[in-house]
Amino acid sequence: MAHAPLDSMVGLHVLVTGVAQGLGFLFARPPCLEGATRIILWVIDEEKLLEAVEQLKLI
After folding, report:
1. Which of 35, 13, 17, 38 lies closest to 26, judged by CA?
2. How many other C-beta atoms are found inside a 10 Å radius of the C-beta of residue 59?
C-alpha cells in the first residue's frame, strides 16, 4: 500500500514518546511549529514531562 508524503501536520493528532530528552524532545517540536491539533507527550518522569511542556510552550 502506498502512502502519501506528509506535507503538513495541521489538524493531526500526534503522539510523541520519550519527550523528556533527546530525540523524543526533538520530535515534539515540529508538531508544535506546524499546527497539529493535539500533541500527546508521553514520558515516565512527570517532573521532566512538565519541564518539556514548559519549553515547548515557548516555541
Report:
1. 17
2. 10
